[in-house]
Amino acid sequence: MATSTPAARTDGQPPPPPDGSAGKGGAGRDGAAGQSRRNILHRLDVRAVPYAFIAPFFLIFGAFGLYPLIYTFWISLHRVELSTMDMMEWRGLANFTELIDDDRFWNALTNTFTIGVISTVPQLLMALGLAHLLNYRLRGSTFFRVAVLTPYATSIAAAALVFTMLFERDFGMINWGLSFFGIENVDWENQKWPAQFAISAIVIWRWTGYNALLYLAAMQAIPRDLYEAAAIDGASRWQQFRQVTVPGISATIVFTIVLSTIGATQLFGEPLIFGQGPNGISGGADNQYQTLGLLLYEEGWKNYQMGRAATIAWAMFLILVLVFVLQRVVTGFKARRPARAAAAPQKKAESTPSATS
Fold first, then answer.
1. Residue 331 has pLDDT above 90, yes or no
2. In total, how many domains does the chain have?
3. To bridge 89 with a disulfide, which of 79, 257, 272, 330 should be the other Cys (CB 3.0-4.6 Å)?
4. Helix axes 192-220, 250-265, angle to 10 degrees
5. Which domain holds residue 254?
6. In this structure, what CATH number is given to the domain that contains residue 295?
7. How far is CA 281 from CA 40, 165, 260, 288, in A?
8. Residue 347 has pLDDT above 80, yes or no
9. What is the DSSP secondary structure assignment for residue 102, as one 8-state letter?
10. What pLDDT sits at residue 84?
11. Segment (H or E) for 198
12. Radius of gyration of the chain, Cα coordinates, nearest whole angstrom
């Protein structure tokens, strides 16, 4: 059967299709519309879906993080009592200026700093050494790794009560052990430095294993080739630890320092239970171990001054922001030092005239 072919057009345009679909313009428009919808859905899938996945985090953070932070700052600008939270008296920055002039705030800040140093420095050093030992191939290594994490899983209340009995003045095991060295009973609770050392012991016991596992995970990420190369060069175990291990986990060390600083600033449960009663809120009879967390609790839930409590909370937040900024500055300075040291010989060589000139 013979078929007819469309004649070529003289205007240079392609001939119409033989099936007569040229007249079906509606179908062509529908296809174009469908393709447009698919393009829109594709762009939404690529651009909008990632935001939908992370939206729950921002919603939860906004409800339980950002909103309380902003509302706490709003309360800090007022005189508010716990019994009448709906009645606020505007004070502006008066709460902050009074806080700066308050000796109890500076005493609590000093105690927070000293307890933080006493607990953080030995804790991280012990964690570093413990992680170094666990990094070796040991029999039952899984058991030891779980064992060092057990104190972290223990309740703060239980740990504080046990250590309170250990540091008891008349019948405590610590004073019993010290008596063998001729040291008389130490009043751990009513003396400033003994009380702070006792509270720091609770913090060290709870958090050393947790930091040790962080260091252990970072150590296991260091390539073994570096240790083999150091051993070939004649480096001892101690030299390998200083020259390979510590630089290899420097980022984790900085992270644990920041984490411990945050924990020390928010220290509350250990000194509260160590006080064994009303003295726990005030940090002892002379506020000798009252931290910023205890001062916040005393102002808000004992003195019913929520405006002052909110001011202390914001002061703690600003201190943490300052610590974070200092950490970033120090980290950036250390990162620029190798680049400057590498560029110094090159600049010196360029500035030195050659012998042929």
1. no
2. 1
3. 79
4. 150
5. 102-304
6. 1.10.3720.10
7. 61, 19, 22, 11
8. no
9. -
10. 86
11. helix 192-220
12. 33
| Whole-angstrom distance, CA of residue 348 vs CA of residue 172 | 66
Q: What is the DSSP string of 243-299?
A: IIIHHHTHHHHHHHHHHHHHHHHT--HHHHHHTTSHHHHHTSTT-TT--HHHHHHII
How far apart (Å, rounded) are the C-alpha atoms in residues 191 and 186? Answer: 8
* CA 199 vs CA 67, 77, 134, 148, 206: distances in Å: 33, 33, 27, 20, 11
For residue 184, give every residue at least 6 positions away whose Cβ sits within 8 Å of its Cβ, in sequence order, or none: none
Instruction: Give the pLDDT confidence of 100-136 residue by residue, as tens digits.
Output: 999 999 999 999 999 999 999 999 999 999 999 888 8
How many other CB atoms are there within 10 angstroms of residue 25's CB atom? 9
What is the 3-state secondary structure of 113-156?
Answer: HHHHHHHHHHHHHHHHHHHHHHCCCCCCHHHHHHHHHHHHHCCH
Rounded CA separation 203/208 (Å): 8
Quote the CA–CA distance of 82 and 126 in Å, as a whole number. Answer: 43
**Phi, psi angle pair for 4, to nearest 5°:** -100, 135
pLDDT category at 23 given cuts 50, 70, 90 is very low
pLDDT, tens digit (0-9, with 9 covering 90-100), for 253-293: 989 998 999 999 999 999 999 987 677 888 888 899 999 99
Check residue 86 and report its DSSP letter: E
Place of tokens 């705030």: 105
CA separation for the pair 273, 281 (Å, rounded): 9
Contacts of 226 (CB under 8 A, 6+ apart): 244, 248
Does 190 fall in a domain?
A: yes
Q: What does the alpha-carbon distance between residue 60 and residue 278 come to, in Å, rounded to a whole number? A: 36
DSSP code, position 21 = G
Burial of 272 from C-beta contacts in 10 A (0-12 / 13-18 / 19+): buried
Q: Are 289 and 271 in contact (CB under 8 A)?
A: yes
The model's pTM is 0.79
- Classify 79 as helix, strand or coil: strand
Distance CA 53, CA 91 (A): 42
